[in-house]
Amino acid sequence: METAIEVSDLVIARGRRRVLHGLSCAIPRGSVTGLLGPSGSGKTTLMRAIVGVQKVESGTVTVLGEPAGNAGLRARVGYLTQAPSVYADLTVRENARYFASLYTNATNRDADEAIEKVGLAGASGQLVGTLSGGQRARASLACAILGKPDVLVLDEPTVGQDPVLRDELWQHFRDLRDAGATILVSSHVMDEAGRCDRLLLIREGELIADNTPDEVRAAAGTDDLDQAFLNLIRTRARDQKTVEVQ
């Protein structure tokens, strides 16, 4: 399968603390890949590197055949940050239509359709500043998908959403994948791992697993993905101790 994102020996430090420790992975085109791990494990840092807004100490990140952050990728990569990235003093519709105007291939109709897809049609005339945190996150998502990006990087997109809406958002992610997009979704909630085509499990800046959910379960000897993550961590810790003793 063709690769959309390739990360090779990536090292990133913030101040004196190293956040990523020579991390390498490849994300196939046309897939939904989950980036999972506890808070502080380096998920957001890795995503920022993929988008091209993170200073890198060493290693490389290639997106759609180009170095991450290249000008040629700006219209091809969508990015949803954890913090809402829309204007509080504009309505949901005004925000979406403004962002649509920045793309050559997006119209006001596309903006209205994006609002509907994220479940905000009934709140399209509200000022973003009056919305709940979960609604503001959905408004940001609507703007992120407007340009029909080839790669969509979503940092904790389902935090604060109710179960029904979470299910609808995941179905939309799969629809985007089926249309040819590559989706990278971060979460610290392991019950979302089973919704992905592939998983990157990260802890303390190191990759613990890079496989399909079924292969992760098999490697860890359990059908429970929460337990699988714990088993893989413990196995890795034992292997490291064995190497140190030797």
UniProtKB/TrEMBL annotation:
Residues 5-229 form the ABC transporter domain. Keywords: ATP-binding, Nucleotide-binding. InterPro entries: AAA+_ATPase, ABC_transporter-like_ATP-bd, ABC_transporter-like_CS, P-loop_NTPase. Gene3D superfamilies: P-loop containing nucleotide triphosphate hydrolases. Pfam families: ABC_tran. GO terms for molecular function: ATP binding. This is ABC transporter ATP-binding protein. It comes from Luedemannella helvata.
